[in-house]
Amino acid sequence: MSPHPVRRRVAVVGTGAIVAGSHLPALRAHADRVELVAAVDVDPARLDAFRAVAGAEVAGYPSTGAMLDAVRPDLVLIGTPPSLHREQTVAALKAGAWVLCEKPLCLSLAEYDDIAAAEEASGGYASVIFQHRYGSGAAHARELIAGGALGAPLVAHCQTTWHRDAAYYAVPWRGRWATEGGGPTMGHGIHQYDLLLHLLGPWAEVRAMAARLVHDTEGEDVSTALVRFANGALATVVNSVLSPDEVSRIRVDCADATVELTHLYGHRNDNWTYTPAPHVDPARAAAWRTPAADVPSSHTAQLGALLDAWDAGARPPGSGAQARATLEFAAALYKAAFTGRPVRAGEIVPGDPFYTAMHGDHPDWAPKERV
């Protein structure tokens, strides 16, 4: 008898590169647990091309509403531009489905709280794709840090230094607050600092700067932050799309060891290194090496974790307080950068302009009227 007797019926919303290249392989990897039954796209040609790859048995629909009315799926995977995420997520929850949505889950804390209300009303859950949490190397590092095996966390660095050219921002929805939600703080570096929060726990205070140095966009093309964590550790965070030598990196210096991850768009065990402090016994340090199982960070790994939670009757990882904490960090970074003041965890509440929009209606950053 299969250990996973329940096979969930899944629909995808959006059939572009991220769904075809990442979500579809994840669904196929878990074919004993899920069945793709429907796909949604406003572009008929793109939808047909996806169905030709996914299988003729996958029904096609021009809108999320039409699909939800006809199919009533168990799980909806959302891979559309960010401005659509809140509406599509709430609609799926109201239809009784769980949701796994590309980052960012939504464009503001106000939108997130709308999703949380829909969760509570429906009994379903909405998770955001932060696949870097789910590789075996990340799970191992988090266990070591949280359990105190490496000593107290002291200093950390989080770096997303990527390169995006003018052609990248020629796509109409990119580079605009209303459709992308921000610059690399929201669209690129969010993966790495989400993993930093996963490793170090709650943040307490953020100071930041942001600039628009190269690209003609509404939001920033680079941001930097200084972060104090609740456990006392201090960190730097850099988010850039101006960097010809692209790298994604996290380094955490603990009292007894440095743990470092260096990669670009995904990691395996070999991307993690541990350097013991001089006083550490080598036999103790040997236990820190990455585990024998090598699970790459991927949509496949995160989908498996969601299905495990579903089978266990538990809230899935990447939802609820976890998802909100990462979005709150983004809002705090923007508020600190645009106001020039430190921002503390929990201070962005209804009535704060940064609660409803990442630009906070700041006169130097809020979108201008387009002629």
Automatic annotation (TrEMBL):
Domain GFO/IDH/MocA-like oxidoreductase: 140-259
Domain Gfo/Idh/MocA-like oxidoreductase N-terminal: 9-128
Gene Ontology molecular function terms on file: nucleotide binding
Matching SUPFAM superfamilies: Glyceraldehyde-3-phosphate dehydrogenase-like, C-terminal domain, NAD(P)-binding Rossmann-fold domains
Domain of life, source organism: Bacteria
InterPro entries attached to this UniProt entry: Gfo/Idh/MocA-like_OxRdtase_N (IPR000683), Gfo/Idh/MocA_Oxidoreductase (IPR052515), GFO_IDH_MocA-like_dom (IPR055170), NAD(P)-bd_dom_sf (IPR036291)
The protein's name in its UniProt record: Oxidoreductase
Organism from which the protein derives: Streptomyces fumanus
